[in-house]
Design brief:
Blueprint (H helix, E strand, L loop, with lengths): L1 H13 L3 E6 L24 H25 L5 E6 L15 H18 L10
Parallel strand pairs: 1-2
Length: 126
């Protein structure tokens, strides 16, 4: 996020209505509400879910800091937001935890998941 935003910032600032939208997730609230700055890479005990949650929280922190900096620069034509896209059918959990358990849960839950989640390709098909 940071590098792309930095590369585009001058163009965004000169636009009439600049928008910077960072995708996050409500997952950041599930286990933690702060980043572990002493172990950002989770070298002292990697947990895939914690890594995901912390990355989503980092997206929110980045968004808030960027918005504050633009406000301090008195840039009023750029809006910076983060969003939770809702529950989307992805393969996010494929690398989390016990593969046999994940396969079993997928078989049991997939029919229900299709009823209550969006396809990540839904917008691309139009």
């Amino acid at each position: 996020h940071f590098l792309l935003t930095k590369l585009l910032m001058d163009k965004i600032k000169t636009s009439n209505e600049g928008r910077i939208i960072n995708v996050s997730s409500m997952a950041h609230t599930m286990k933690t509400n702060s980043l572990n700055f002493e172990d950002l890479m989770l070298k002292n005990g990697y947990d895939p879910w914690l890594a995901y949650m912390q990355s989503k929280l980092a997206n929110i922190y980045f968004t808030r800091e960027l918005a504050k900096r633009l406000e301090n620069e008195q840039v009023t034509n750029v809006k910076v937001v983060s969003l939770h896209p809702g529950v989307i059918r992805t393969e996010l959990a494929r690398n989390f935890g016990n593969k046999c358990l994940m396969y079993s849960l997928t078989c049991l839950c997939l029919p229900w998941a299709y009823m209550f989640t969006l396809s990540p390709w839904r917008g691309a098909q139009n």
